[in-house]
Structure formats: C-alpha cells, structure tokens
Amino acid sequence: MSYTLPSSKMYPANHKTVFVLDHTPYFGISCENVIEFEFLKGRTSSFIPMTPISKSLWTSSVESAVEYCRIIWDLFPTGKLVRFFVSDTIAHVLNSWNTNQQSVSHILNGCAHIGIPPSHSPLRSTTPTPDYTVLHGLRAAIEGVCEPTEYQIEKMKTDGCKVLNRCRVICITSARDNESMKRLEEIFLTVLNQQNKLVAGNDSLLPIDHCHLVIINTFPINIESSVNNHPPKVLSPLLTTEVHSIKAPQIPNKLSSLILHHYDLASTTVTGIPMKEEQNASSSANYDVEIFHSSLAHTAILKSNASDSAAIRTPKEGLEYDTVTLKWCTPRGVTGNELQNCTAMHRITPVDVNSRPSLCLINFLLSGRSVMLEMPRKAGGKITSHLLAAHGGEIFIHTLCTARSVLEDPPSISEGCGGRVTDYRITDFGLFIKQNTLVPIKIKIATDEQKPIEKMKERLARQTKYWPLTISSTLIFNLKQYIDPLPTLITKEQMTDDEVFVCKKVIFNLISLESKMEPLHPQNTGQRLKGQKREEQYKAMWNELEAFIKCNLHSENHKLVYQCLLECHKFSFDEDKTTEKVDLDEALNQLDNIGAQTKDENAQRASVIRATTDSPMSPPPLAIAAPFGNKHSNKGGSIYNTQKSLFEIFAVQEKSKIRPEFAGRLGDSLMAKLYPNLKTEDRGPRGEGGMEVE
Amino acid sequence: MPTVILLDASLSMTRPIQFIDGIETTRKQLAITGINAFLDHLSVHSKLEFIALIAFSSLYEERCSFTRDYNVIKSELKNIDDYDKTCLETAFHGVNQMILGEWGNNTVCQIILITDGSTGIGSMSLKETLTLDKAVGSMPFSLPFSFPAKLHVVCIAGANEPSFIKSRPLYQRLIDMSGYDGSIQVLEQLQSEADVITLFQKLSEEIYISFKGVLKCGSLDSKIILSPAPVAYTKITDFNSQTYNVSTLIEICGFISVADVGSPMAISRHLILPATASGKNDLTSTTIDLTDENSIDEGNTPSFCVLLHGALKVENMAALVAIGENWFGFVYSWADSKKKSNLMLTILPPGSDIIPWLGDLNELATTDMFPAEQAGTFPLRPSEKRSYSQNGVVWIRQAGLQSDIQKILRHARKLPGKTQQFYKELNRLRKAAVSLGFQDLLNGLSHIFERECMQLPDSAHPDCALQLQHAAEMLRKTQSRDIKFILLPLQTNYNSS
C-alpha cells in the first residue's frame, strides 16, 4: 500500500525555533504597567508611600519567551528545540541545540547571567557609543539554525538523504517606525542569503530551506507605536515574515495565540471542576481550567458533527483563539483498570500553571486518579469524549472513540473454535502469565546484544515446549503434588546442580511410590481414576513425563535429569512399537486416549456414582479439595485428613519409617548413593496415604 | 470495513447501449445490476459489512444509511431518478460528512464510486475542481478524506472509450490523493451484462479479504482471523514517513497488567477469532460468522485463543504482541456487553517507543531474567519533571506574583516559627526576579518588608522585626542580584538554638 506523502507535514519549521531577545538599553525601561497589591492597601496607614512595581520591557519579553518554551517542552519533551540569542552590543548565546540545554531552568540561568539591559553610557565623550542593536542577535540566529540538530544529524546518517532545514525565528524588539521595521526584514533576508552561500559546500552546516521570521514589536503601555502589524508576507522563497506590534504586557497573550499555530495546538477548557473554597472548606464551588495540547486531540469531536462542535467551541475571551469547553465528570470508583478505546493520546499542560484551580486539577490527576470529560450533544444527552490521566508523572489527554463501532454484535469467544471446551488449564496459564509479567529493563549500552524482548520470546518458547491446553489431555500437570517443582525447573534455560538434584528427587519419589503401588491422585480432574489400573496410570505418567523432559533438554544439566529418568524407569518403548524412542506425537496420542477414556468415565461417574454413593463423609471432588498450589498444605485442606483416626496416622508414620529399606531394595549402586538423602528429605505428600486406606 | 456506494445519477448514465446480442440497456441499468451482484456476493461471503448508498449528480443525496440489510439498498436502487451532471467534488463532500458522522475519523472505510467515465462539464467538473487554485477556492478539495479510506472507481464503460481515456488520469489522481491503495475498475469492452456482473463480483472478492494469521505464544499457537482486517499504516513524524504492514504472525512477547498498560492510543482494534485448523470450510466467507454446522466440531477442539482469553480475563492482564517489524499491540479480554466476552487486539502506532510510561517495548523482560538493579517498575517516569510538578515561577498574570508575595508575608507574620519557609520562599522569588531581570520587585519587596516591620502588632515576636529588617537590607544589596547568592536567616538569640 502506498501512501502519497503530504510532504509539508515533514520537516516542520517548529523543529527549530530561535528566540532573539532585544537586550539594548531601551529594553531596560519600564512597561509602566503597575502591579497592584490589594492585600497591602487594606492595612496601609499611608506613612510610607509604596513605590510602584512594574516589569521592564526586558522582563516582559523574557518571561513571555520562557512561557512559550515551558508549554512546548511540557507537550513535546523531545524533537521540538528552542534556542535563545540575546542581543546588545554582541549576540549572547544562551543554549545550543543540544538536548540537555533544552530546559527552562537552563534558559533562566542564562538570563540571570546576562542580567538587566545595560544603561546608556553616560560618559558619551570618553568612549564611542557601543553599537547596541538587535541585528547582532538576528545574524547569530541565522548562523545558529544552520547548525544541525541531533535529529537532523541522525536522519542524514541513517538515510543518507538531505533534510529540509526549516526554522522559525521569533524576535522581540522595538523599532521606531514601519520604515525601520522594513529595513530590519530586508537586512535579515540579505544575511540569510549570504549565510546560505557561505554554508554551501560545508558538510557540517545545513543551508536554510525556509525561515519564518516573527517580529514582535513592543513598547510601554503609555506609548503609541508607529509600527503597524502585517500578516505573513512572502519576502522570498526562503523567507516569510510577519510583524505584531503590541504593548509589552500583551506579549504573553500574543505568543499564546501564535504558539497554537506554530505547533498545531488547541485549547480545552475543563469546566465544572468542584473545588473546596480556600476560606470555607465545607462548601465547594465550580472552577474552570484551561489546558493546551495537540489539536489532534480534538479532531474526532470537531469533525464529526458540525452543530455539536459549534456548540462547544467558543472564542477565548480577550484572546485570538477558540477553546473547546468540556465538562468535568467526577470519577466513580477506580478508573484505568480497563483498556479504553482511545484513538489519540497527547500530553497536556495547564495554560495558567500556578493558578489554584490548575494546581488542584493537576494534583488530582498526579495522585493517580483520572477524569472523564463530557461533551454535550445537540441532539440531547452527552457523550464521554476524553479522559485526562497521569502516567508516570506526566498528564495526558486521551481521545475516546465516540463514533459507532464496526464491531457491533460480536460473537462471544465461546461461540467459536474451541469455545465449548470447558477444561482449559486456565489457572495454570494464569500462573504462566504471572511468571512472564514484563517490567522495564535498564539496558547497559551493548546495542548489538539481543534485545530483552527477543529473549522473552525465547523464554516463552522454552516454557511452552510441552504445554497441554486442557486438563483432560495431561496427567502429569494434574499430579502437581508429585512432580512439583520439576516443571518450573526443567523449563529454565540453565539448571544448577541443586536444581538437577531436586528434579531427580521427584523422579525417585515417583519410583518409590510406584514400587509401593500407591495410586496417583490427580488434582484437577474431578474424578479419581478408580477404574484405571494403577499400572496403566503409572505407565501414562512415565510416558508423559518422559515426553515433557525430553522436550526440555536445554543444557547438559537438563540431560542429566533425562538420563536419570531413563535409568530409573524402564521404558518399554518396544512393547508398543518397534522403534526404541517414543516421539512426542506418540506420547500425546497415548495421553489423548487416556483423556478420552477418563472423560467418558467421568461423564458416567458424575451423574451416577456420585449421586448414589457419595455421602456427607465422602471426600469432596478433588478439583475442589485440592486447590492449585496447595501441594503441601493438604494436611488441613481436606476434611478427609482431619478425620484421620489415630491408627491411620500411626500406620502412616510406620510406613515412612520402613521406607528407606524399600528404596534400597532396588539394588542399583547409583541408588544406594542417594539413599541417605532420601531418608532425610520430605517424602512428599503423605496425606495421600490416608486416602489409600479408604 | 464500512463501504459507501457512490452512484452517479447524472444524465449521461442514461445513455443507451446496444450489446452485440441485440439487447438494449443503459449504463445506469448496468450499474444497478452490478451493484445487485455485488450485494449478492456480500450477503453470501461477508454479510456483516455495513453498506450505505449515496446517489449524486450536481447535488448528492444519502439514499441508504449504513446497514447490514442489503435488501434495503436493493429496493432503494429501483427508485433512483435521473438528474443533471456529474460533480464529484460535491459527492465526496457528502461522503466525508456521512462517514465522519457515523464512524468518526478512525475507522477505515471504502468508497466505491460507480460512474460512466465522464467527469462532468463546466466549472464543477472534476478537471476544474482539481486544478482550481487553492488560493481562489473557498473550500479545499475534500480529498484526502478525514478518515482512512480506500477509493475504488468503477466505470461502466469500455477501456477504449475516449471519455474514459481522458478521465482515467483524473481518477488515478483522486486515488493518489485519497492516500490509500484504491483501484480503477473497467471492462476491456462493454459487451454484455454478464461482464459487468463479473466485474462487480471480482471487486467484492478483492476488497473484502479477511485477515488470516497465527497467534503464537512460544510453542503454543492458534490460527486466527482478525475482524475487521487490519490495513497497513503510514507513520509520519517530523523526519520520517514509513509504511508498516501487519505480519500474519502475531507473537506474544509477555504480559502486562491492564492497569499498567493504561489506555494508550490505538490506531485500530480487531476481534481475534480462532480459525479452524484444517480450513475445511471456506475461510474467506466467514468473517465473524462462525455459526454453521462445522463449528460444532470445532467448538470441541481445544484452541489456544480460548485458553489465553480465559487466563487474561481472570488475571486482568494484557499480552504484549509483536505484530510486525518494530510494531506492537496488546491482546486482552474485552466485553461488548456484560455477557459476550472476546479476545481483542489493539494495534498501537508503529514503533517501540510510543507509550512513554512503558518505555521502549523492546526493552521489557521479566524480573528474574536480569540483575535486580536493571529491572524497573511501571510506570516509567521521564528524566525531567514537567513544569506543572516543578513549582516553577510564572508571573505572567499578576495574580501569580501577588500570591507568591502573600505567601512570603504569611510566613513573615509567623516568624520565628516559619523562618525556614520564609527564607525558602523568599529565595525562590528572589532567584526568579534575578533571572527575569525584575529589579523593581527586589526593591519593592524590600519596601514591603519595611512597611510590614512597622505595622507589626505589639504581640509579634521580636525575631519577626529582626528578620524582616535583615531581609529588606539584603534585598537591596547588589550581591543579591547574583543568581547563586542565597539569602540566609539572620543569626539571632531566638533562632540560634
């Protein structure tokens, strides 16, 4: 499938943004916008007149530019880079394209070192007036955008192709009139062309393919500027410029509107957030919080229904953009425990980061709770359209699917293939899932090494080499009390000597059980295999165990276990067929037969025998009596055990005493060696011995 | 996937045709016969597809909304009148509205345009609207659609007809603009009705291909069908544009609890239906309809899918699956209603680093596979805190600055009990003021402290006045203009102990 690319989407200008801040003496003057301190007024007894506090043009431009970056870096932690150039008599470079210099604190530190704009030199006579101009910064900015970013270098290295070097320069300055503004733009274009010529042929620098120059002309509130705004104007194929002439306190608002265009963002106002009043904790009032995020989060709701979208979209008061108002929906219970049908997901940042309502919403989300947002419908009712949630300390807006689903009336899984089988080993697979739960791994470089996820696939393959799907198709996995922990150990990639020993011990134990002709009691099957002869039962068990271990010969130690099995139990392979080896299919076949046999039996037994012979004193069905994983706790688990007579207990103890002799009688020299160990170890679930007495 | 049949009802469709065998008919009649054949084919092989019908000329009209009852469409086809000229731009606009209203902007849809090879005349002809300068046009051309869509153009015409030869490149351009692979269907020669029927049947076969694959977990596997069939995805980032195809092997890599997965963005969701191992019944015909007789036997054959579904549901876990080269998804138990539970595949955007709180999906494993110090926990946190959890200083709105100063004064009145907090807040404010070159604030605050000092009630602690005076003096000193400077409490008898 080919997709013709809207190439305009690639290599966006917002990858590289440069702020050029005017640091000439003029920017040291006050905005004349006095900050009110209501809380001081009430208590004044006017003996000290308060000196008015007002930001300088410099402070206004720095804080606006930094706020622009705060929003960008919150929303796009990578890939959207901003550099700062400060211009007075020379250009001061505050940061590079390097990722570790892309942070608000780095910029603010830089600004602190630059300090306030210099004052005009009072001693005009002694030294020639230094050349204060923003042009130094603009010139440096053009040089700066020719330096490739890590992303551009990476792209050129991997694909070997040319990248389009687009950029945006935002210059906050102050010009006298339209004429000087025009001259500024022209000089910029000239420098741009010169720079491109200079860069041609230099491999370490990139020519500029397009530059978007945004000039913000600013001045104190008590002044009228003679510079006019002009919308984007194509000065050359390389350069588009626009001019915004605004009073200094308005710069942040202007940049807020511009940022939405520059990064394709949108505004959402979360309305109706219930908040406790600061003064009166018992009452609560409703507040609104405005957030910014990628405009794609709105695509679904704004495109789907024109009249609905018109209703929720309103112009933001006093600003030049629209905000979409969605209603807070107080969460009920724990959300996030199911996978929502989420069609888009974007980071958010509050517009007014330090306001009380914003902090309240942010802290609510960061504490791990999530909030649904509702949108009213013209047709009546409302629809849950978004989800706000924090993940790992970052807050995201999730766009939920509000449209009709093509998966209408799906069949249940039980209606399809395998849907009628009722004895899947769900519990065992649940355990398998838990044992294979993923966590993030911190990788120690070594890129050529196999990725953890690939190792995981190998691990899963190893652990499922022999994994019957249903209870009725396996015997050994229903005999956990006899074979654990062999299945867990044998599926490991490597086995320690101790683990080999444990596995061998399981085999020896089974041998000794067999020699005593003790019946095996499967755990989950719900029937007790009474009709089956013990010899057959053991034969099936040995064959399956052999098949299982044979599937898991992952290392030399694994082979030792297999060898041990072959040595201990005489497999009568040639009885059934001429070949010596039982292959897996054969083993499975046999197992299937057992399964089929027991199933029929089960069906009859369940309806006839249990109904007629089970008395309140009968042991409960094994499936209930022996819950999974309880292999050692059967002493108290079943009512049967609690009813053991003193004689039975005594008999069991007697038996365990004579047991070591029994094993010795096998007469194998190998066995004799391990014999003392057998004596001291736990002899497995002796509780089962009690059942035999029945 | 939902399909819109876009039928040309312009006058040119009524042009008569006489076949060699003498039968006379019109292109419109042929189109209707073709659509009927198309629907008949669907009702046998893909009866759960949603189909809608739009008729258009210079205007458009929604004749049938999306339905699985194809007879409704068939009967509606009998009532289509003849109108004026072909105008595709308007028709596409209508399609866009209709699909967005019904399926939103995420569902892959198909549009079958049935026309006669003439693309209209005059200002609203396709040629005109395509070449129209964007600067002049009040509305941008409606292609590409606002949702993923494949466009198929069926021409009731012979490939050698002059009008078709002229319009073929225009149709191709439409398909290219739509962004996904569509097709142009035309007969070599318009010779018989049967040819038209075959054309439509073939189209139906081609465009409703079910996705057959294998769901694998180590050595366990199950043949599956994905419904709806997934389509290739083109991911465009700032520096890359790459098309990814879903592999027929869907391989489980491990498991993550549903709560840890969160609700990441998905590009599509698909039901995973276990398929028969033997393929004895025609799989192409069964999308999600598995209720024929064969299924009785199949129902009793154990399937890994059912086991997986059961265990995932019980444990409330999701399986991370690799669905292609560096492309992942999650498989989990999903219930439409409370009763009917299903195995669902959610396809993530391509790439391994797409869920920030899970990290690189290639770098996940179980805790026991790596040394303890290398194993982390979900959710992963970014190396840098976002601004909203940094307690940064923003004074763009006056309220921000006012509340910061008020906070300091609140602490000041509680000196010496709040000495630490007072100086901590004061230094935070001072540092911000230095960074922003906000000298007025430093001087102003110094003033405020002095005033505060003079207004202290008699009951105030003596340390209160001392510390305020000290802070006020320090703020005026030039050394406090240094970002590295830290304003320390005055050592007094009251706080030295």
From TrEMBL, chain A:
Source superkingdom: Eukaryota
Pfam family, one: Mat89Bb
Subcellular location: Cytoplasm, Perinuclear region; Nucleus
GO CC list: integrator complex; perinuclear region of cytoplasm
Keyword Cytoplasm assigned: yes
Keywords tagged on the record: Cell cycle, Cell division, Coiled coil, Cytoplasm, Developmental protein, Differentiation, Meiosis, Mitosis, Nucleus, Spermatogenesis
One Gene Ontology biological process: meiotic cell cycle
UniProt xrefs under InterPro entries: Cell_cycle_regulator_Mat89Bb
Family from the record: Belongs to the Integrator subunit 13 family.
Subunit note: Belongs to the multiprotein complex Integrator, at least composed of IntS1, IntS2, IntS3, IntS4, omd/IntS5, IntS6, defl/IntS7, IntS8, IntS9, IntS10, IntS11, IntS12, asun/IntS13, IntS14 and IntS15. The core complex associates with protein phosphatase 2A subunits mts/PP2A and Pp2A-29B, to form the Integrator-PP2A (INTAC) complex.
Name of the molecule in the record: Protein asunder
Source organism: Sitophilus oryzae
From TrEMBL, chain B:
Domain Integrator complex subunit 14 beta-barrel: 208-351
Species this chain originates from: Sitophilus oryzae (Rice weevil)
Protein name: Integrator complex subunit 14
Domain VWFA: 3-117
GO biological process, one term: snRNA 3'-end processing
Primary subcellular site in the record, as a coarse category: nucleus
Keyword list, A-Z: Nucleus
Family recorded in the similarity comment: Belongs to the Integrator subunit 14 family.
Pfam families reported for this sequence: IntS14_b-barrel (PF19435), IntS14_C (PF20504), VWA_2 (PF13519)
PANTHER family: INTEGRATOR COMPLEX SUBUNIT 14, PTHR13532
One GO CC term on file: integrator complex
Span of domain Integrator complex subunit 14 C-terminal: 393-495
